[in-house]
Amino acid sequence: MIFIANFKMMLTTPDAINFVQKNLHTYATLANQHKIILCPSATALFNLSKILQGSSVAIGGQTCGSNLSGAFTGDISATDLAACGATYCLAGHSERRSLYNEHNDAVATKAKLIIEAGLTPITCIGETLDELESSSTLKILEQQLTPILQAVATTKKKEFFIAYEPRWAIGSGRTPTASQLSEIFSFLKKTIQELSPNISFKLLYGGSVSSKTISTLASISPLDGFLIGGASLDFQEFQKIVDYFN
Ligand code: PGA
């Protein structure tokens, strides 16, 4: 299984270094059996990739700029993330979509740039509570997914991860039921295979993944892994989630 730890903006760079150094041995052990990807803040990324060198733990960016280089003050390119040791990068996390107005086309452009920089994009999609309550989930997911598929199809590598993260589940302690999730993941798999038969992909779930919710979430099919926010900052909790699959 794949486990992605999204540290968000919760740790300073020295705190992230201490956290990873303290748990390095166990991270490395977990990564012998599963794919473990840590997404720290951009300033911590270079140091963490050095600390993790020699282990199978991978590093990812949390977002990237909308260009690969140039006069874009304050932006961090996917090329730079790759040069600092990242091999993955999130695109379209719901916090980026809702707080920074990153719309579907902008997310698709980032997914393409991430691949062009040599990384694997972890593209996030998910409906709001209003959209859930008006039974629009599948329609919204298709609208979010289609431009990403079109963008990925134009690249040489044609590989991406897709993380379904219902916005109302992020940080709320609430998760969809296993049967809702199975329906959604079957829909995503079918849609990707129909629209883009040549693209290779992994399906992830994110939103209030914890040691309490994992037993329900573990029964979802088809699913390749989890994107974990809050629980990734409590190492024992993160370890319990991964250990559930051992
Ligand atoms: P959460 O966050 O696990 O704290 O709900 C998930 C995410 O934002 O990726």
Describe it:
By secondary structure, the protein is α/β, with parallel strands linked by helices. Helix content is 44%, strand content 17%. It is built from 11 helices and 8 strands. The protein has an 8-stranded parallel β-barrel, surrounded by 5 helices. Helix 1 packs parallel to helix 3 (42-51), helix 6 (104-116) packs parallel to helix 8 and helix 8 (137-153) packs parallel to helix 9. It is globular, with a radius of gyration of 17 Å. The relative contact order is 0.14. 2-phosphoglycolic acid binds next to strand 8.
In total, how many beta strands?
Answer: 8
Beta-strand percentage range: 15-25%
The main β sheet shows up as:
8 strands, parallel, barrel
Percent helix range: 40-55%
Strands ordered across the widest β-sheet: 1-2-3-4-5-6-7-8
| Low-pLDDT windows of residues | none
Could you say which small molecules are bound to this protein? 2-phosphoglycolic acid
Compile the SSE list and pairings.
Elements: E1 2-6, H1 13-22, H2 24-33, E2 35-39, H3 42-51, E3 58-61, H4 78-83, E4 88-91, H5 94-99, H6 104-116, E5 120-125, H7 129-133, H8 137-153, E6 159-164, H9 178-195, E7 200-206, H10 214-217, E8 225-228, H11 235-243
Helix pairs in contact: 1-3, 6-8, 8-9
The structure holds 2-phosphoglycolic acid.
Relevant terms:
17% strand; 246 residues; alpha/beta; single chain; binds 2-phosphoglycolic acid
Write a concise synopsis of the structure shown.
The chain has 246 residues and is of the alpha/beta class. Helix content is 44%, strand content 17%.
